[in-house]
Every structure is written in C-alpha cells, then in structure tokens.
Amino acid sequence: IHRIAEIRLNDRFGAEPRLGNAVLDAADRLARHSEPPFAEQGQLCVTYLTLPHQAVAQDLALAMREAGFDEVAIDALGNVVGLLHASRPDAPRLLTGSHYDTVRNAGRHDGRLGVLATIEAVRQLRQEGRRLPFALELVAFSEEEGQRYAATFLSSSALVGRFDPAWLDQRDADGIRLQDALRAAGHPGTLGSIEALRRDPARYLGYVELHIEQGPVLCELDLPLGVVTSINGSRRYTGEILGLASHAGTTPMDRRRDAAAAAAELVLAVEREALARPGTVGTVGLLEVPGGSINVVPGRCRFSLDLRAGDDAARDALDGAVRAALASICDRRGLQHTLTPTVVASAAPCAPAWQARWASAVEALGLPVHRLPSGAGHDAMKIHEALPQAMLFVRGGNLGISHNPLETVSNDDADLAVRALRALLDGLSHE
Ligand code: HGY
Ligand code: MN
Ligand code: MN
Ligand code: MN
C-alpha cells in the first residue's frame, strides 16, 4: 500500500523529502525536555508550567516561526499558537491542534504528533509559495492530561469558554496554586486574561486534530490511518478510604480496619463491572497508602478512578455500579470513604462533514478508509462544545501502546500523516 501511496503521492504533491523524518526528529528534540526525577532515568514527563514545559513551548514557537507561520505567540495559558494567513483578508479560519504536555514516563508522540505534522505541512505550503483560501490556526495546547492539576483539557476548555475559575485555586502536590504557577511562568494568571482566549466560533470553519491512535486497531488491520467517528466520554475521581492505622503484629485479622484491603477489593470491583459491560473501561491508575509503614495496618488509602464508555448512558451505568461497590465494601468493613469528581467529559461524536473530509484525504493517498471510535480523550472533545470537529488517527507501532515510552510511530506513517493533512487542506481549498 505504501508503495502505491508513494507513487500516487509523488504525482500529486511533488516528490518531497520524507516529511516523516522531520516530524520524528522534531519529536526527539522536544523529548530532551523532561522533569526530574524522570529526566535522570531518561524518561519523559512534561507537566503543566514546569521549566521543561516552558522550554517545549519556546521550541515549538521557534519551530512554527521557522516553518513560516505568519504570526506565532505563546498565550496566557502557555498555548503556542501559530497563524498562517489566508490568500485573502477576513477569510474564515480552520482550527487545528493537539497538546504538548505529557503523562509521567510518557511516549513522545501523544499530542505532539499532531502539532509537529501540522508544522511540516505549513513548511511545505510555504516552500511551494501556496496560500490557502482560509487561515490555518494551529494551537499546541499546553494542558490536556491533567497530571499536575486535576484540570484535564484546561487549555482547550478556555478556547471554548469553559475554563472553570475554581481551577485557579487548585493546588498541586507541592501545594502550589495554579494561579501562582501561571505567574511564576510569566503569565498574568488572571481570570480575565484566560477568558480573553475564548474563540468566536463564527470565525471558524471547524476543528481537525491529528493524533496517534493509542490503541491496537490500526496495527492489527495493518492500516496507517483511521478516521475517528466519536470520542469516548469519561468520569474521573480521586478518592480516599479511611480505616484505622494499627499495629501489624498485634491487631487480630478479624479486628482490622484495613483501608488498603478495601481498596484492593475496589480495584477488582472496577475490573469486574467494566468487564461485565462491553465497550466500557475502568482504571484505578493511582493507589497509595499515604505515610504508610511496613508494620502498620493501613489506616488510609488514596485512589483514582477513570471510567469511560462510548456513550454517556453506558459511562454513567458503570459509574453507578462502581460507586455502589465502593459503598458496600466500606460498609461491610466498617470504613469511611470520600470521592471527589475531577473530570466529567461527555462522549463527542465527530462531525460527519469533517469525517468525510478526512476520509477523502485518506482516499487521496490511495489508502482504504477505516473508521473507528476513540477510547482516549482528546482536546477535540472540548472544542466539540463550540465547533464541528473530527480527528484522524495515525497508527502506533508496538500494537499502539501509549502512555508508555514504548509508544512509537514509523517514519512512513508520520509521512502519511502530514500528507493526509495536506490532502485535507487541499480538498477544503477546492470546496
Ligand atoms: O486520558 C486520555 O484519554 C488522554 O490521554 N488525555
Ligand atoms: Mn494522553
Ligand atoms: Mn493525547
Ligand atoms: Mn514498635
């Protein structure tokens, strides 16, 4: 298929040096920036507003300028925004983007592939001296993963007027408020400066996002690209089970208030309830005994919940079952618990017209069109609240593993990602 695509492509866009190399080399360069202690172990972690995060923003701004964006700026939330002017003034804009923050011990393509592929597509357009009949606005979103602050999709929320003012008072694990972290990074940190980032939907044609699939489907089908039909919704929580710390040697087994044993039952309950509901997933990603000791029965156990499904009813059914299981485990064991919702994201169907544009782009490359839902959340599901959106997935190697340093994208597939975006832009230009 690649050979056919290569031949077909060259007579269409002209023989270009392998665009994929440029994308993957840029990803490697950005991955130099990482936070301690992950950096010391050669691992990637770039969470919101840390010094490595700010260094990545600077690198992206420079890359956008070098590629030929007419305007480049880092905004009040650290989003790196590049604008390629249209062939005529007051033309509408196409919004595109993805995020540049990462999870802990991350791969180097989650989010960043979409940003870097767009930069290469713009570089190619400028080298060809081409202007589009619409402006192209690329946003490298600064905070999507919600690692340092429990404010997932923080940046894309601001663009659609959904920034929650309470987020400014959120504290990270070191007690630093988001507002103070913004100021320390040189931003105003005021609600006004953030609300000013809201985009007027009337100025935009829509939103498209290129992203790695982060799953095994395209790998197993041996397809480099896939058109996303919808993005799964989620409910996330942080919680704590409260028992009674006591001596590990003297407390009889039938007289314990062991918070960790209850949490272990909860983990298995999440697995059981999600397995019983095809199409749903449930994860306890964080689990810890704060201040625990080897010879103390755990009195407290902190945990997180990440519950997802393709539609909100299924998501809420799983949510109800898990919360009921937590209550019954704690009742039976005589323990208390707290549960704090951190994210509620509704399932976001991708706009049919924009799915069709991605499908035409994939066909223009001589590739078959495969449509699939997204199990992962993306900025597109936030932008969905203001603009029609659609995503194109790029195959990940290693069976699409992600949120793991084994995350990988082949040169060929990165190359096809850039060319697919070019094909979408060209198709849109002729509408
Ligand atoms: O968790 C997710 O779905 C994405 O990585 N934000
Ligand atoms: Mn991610
Ligand atoms: Mn992502
Ligand atoms: Mn002792």
UniProtKB/TrEMBL annotation:
A Gene Ontology molecular function term of the record: 2-oxo-4-hydroxy-4-carboxy-5-ureidoimidazoline decarboxylase activity
Keyword Hydrolase: yes
Source organism (scientific name): Roseateles subflavus
Coverage span on the entire protein: 161 to 591 of 597
Assembly notes: Homodimer.
Keywords in alphabetical order: Hydrolase, Lyase, Manganese, Metal-binding, Purine metabolism
EC nos: 4.1.1.97
Domain of life: Bacteria
Keyword Manganese applies: yes
Family, per entry: Belongs to the peptidase M20 family.
Cofactor: Mn(2+)
Top EC category: lyase
Protein name in UniProt: 2-oxo-4-hydroxy-4-carboxy-5-ureidoimidazoline decarboxylase
